[in-house]
Amino acid sequence: RIRLGDHNITSLVDCQKVYGGVDCNNPFLRVEIENYIIHELYDQSESIHDISLIRLQKSVKFTGNLNINR
User: How far is it, in rounded angstroms, from Cα 56 to Cα 70?
Assistant: First the structure.
């Protein structure tokens, strides 16, 4: 299972202080993983090639706090 839209896994809601108040993201989304592929040259001891492809079991709609980094 993967948590999408979550930056801080130690809290249920991600909030940060901003001028004049607090700004909070929408709650995260849990989605089951159908399959994943780890980079064939991944080396945990050196943290290189630390990328993988993940296929989710269902489609996900992108929102303000749930998006793709380009």
Answer: 19
